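Blinded run. Sample ID left blank on purpose so nobody reads anything into the name before looking at the predicted structure. Input follows.
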Amino acid sequence: MPNTYTQLYIHFVFAVKYRASLLNKDWDDRLRLYITAITQNHGHKVIAINNMPDHLHLFVGLNPKQAISDLIRIIKSDSSEWINKEKLTHGKFQWQEGYGAFSHS
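Blinded prediction complete.
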């Protein structure tokens, strides 16, 4: 449809499995850059990203061409694969199932 305009801001929150404090300050900048790249490669705009040791916040200008569930599935699977490949944690890293998604105006 010509002249379509959307302004969709979504705040995502997702946690490390078992809320384990595994997101380390030594590599959290690299993680944020990696997740930003994944998000941008799928046509979304990262407005803010921050993490605590056991969870991550991501504020996105959402492109409506992709479902929220698909975006989060890709972000979580690709980033956990990267964390494991880079051996950034002792043992296998996993994100907890589920996420929070909150719209903002």
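Unblinding after everyone has recorded impressions. The chain is about 30% helix and 25% strand.
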